[in-house]
Amino acid sequence: MVARSEPTISRLTATARAEGEAKGRAESVLDLLENRGLAVSPEQRAEILGCSDPARLKHWLLSAGSVATVGELLSRP
Question: Which residues span the domain enclosing 54?
Fold first, then answer.
């Protein structure tokens, strides 16, 4: 395949995949928070959706089921 032999295309594909995975994980965090009845402000929503750090998104996802507020979630290291 051309994509596998072309470094630029491979790099762009990897970047697009990572961005898609981050967006999906961020949306999962929001879904969980909203399903629990926690109010998510527009600013908090933007912060969550704007995050591209896989480790932070995973931490948020794993913590979203036990926090009392969205602010608590976002303030955790």
Answer: 2-75
